[in-house]
Write a structure and sequence with these properties.
The protein is of the alpha/beta class. It has helices spanning 4-9, 22-30, 50-55, 115-125, 152-159, and strands at residues 39-44, 60-66, 81-85, 98-104, 126-136, 163-170, 182-188. It has a seven-stranded mixed sheet, with helices on both faces. The radius of gyration is 15 Å and the shape is globular. The chain starts with a helix and ends with a strand.
Length: 189
């Protein structure tokens, strides 16, 4: 398995684009009704935390979660957001679950054998009626992995039992990833 802490420590982070996801910004601007406006949210594998800061509002507290403390040291906790260093599959989540979880470059970082555990954990930590935003990447085969190639069908296999897919569009994301991403929104049953 990839040593993500070592990658961050050695600044080997080509996936860090230095800004929040343009696709998430577009969703927030043009389809805000799909995103909870109140409650609590989580960004697993948050990296530098750009998306954490973007999603956080006075009424929606966002927690960034990552196994590496190095990746998010530049981001200090604030009233609307905070960061924790822990294992996604083992951390203690808030009683009742999250209203929102945002996944971008998290599932694709895991070896494929871990994917079913990801789907089960999402169902466990997101409350009924809650929202999962999944920016699906990469949808085209990569020579060097991770990131491990995903597909729309893989997300359906992992999520259909506990979620309804309410939105799926080509993502208007980072220039270097155009045509390789789709943005999906799922509601917890």
């Amino acid at each position: 398995m990839t040593d993500w802490c070592n990658r961050w420590d050695n600044a080997e982070t080509p996936w860090d684009k230095g800004q929040a996801s343009p696709a998430l910004e577009d969703l927030m601007k043009n389809h805000s009704s799909l995103i909870p406006s109140t409650g609590i949210g989580l960004v697993p594998g948050c990296g530098s935390g750009y998306d954490v800061v973007l999603l956080a509002t006075d009424d929606l507290h966002i927690t960034g979660l990552d196994m590496s403390s190095t990746c998010k040291l530049g981001n200090k906790s604030h009233g609307q957001y905070d960061f924790i260093c822990d294992d996604f599959f083992k951390f203690k989540f808030p009683e009742g679950g999250y209203d929102l979880v945002y996944d971008y470059t998290f599932l694709c970082a895991m070896p494929p054998h871990m994917r079913p555990d990801w789907g089960k954990r999402m169902a466990e930590i997101i409350k009924p009626g809650g929202t999962l935003i999944a920016l699906q990447y990469p949808l085209k085969e990569k020579a060097k992995q991770p990131p491990f190639t995903l597909s729309v069908e893989i997300y359906h296999e992992l999520l259909n039992e506990n979620f309804d897919n309410v939105y799926l569009e080509d993502a208007k994301g980072h220039e270097s990833r155009l045509g390789e991403e789709k943005l999906s929104v799922w509601k917890r049953k």
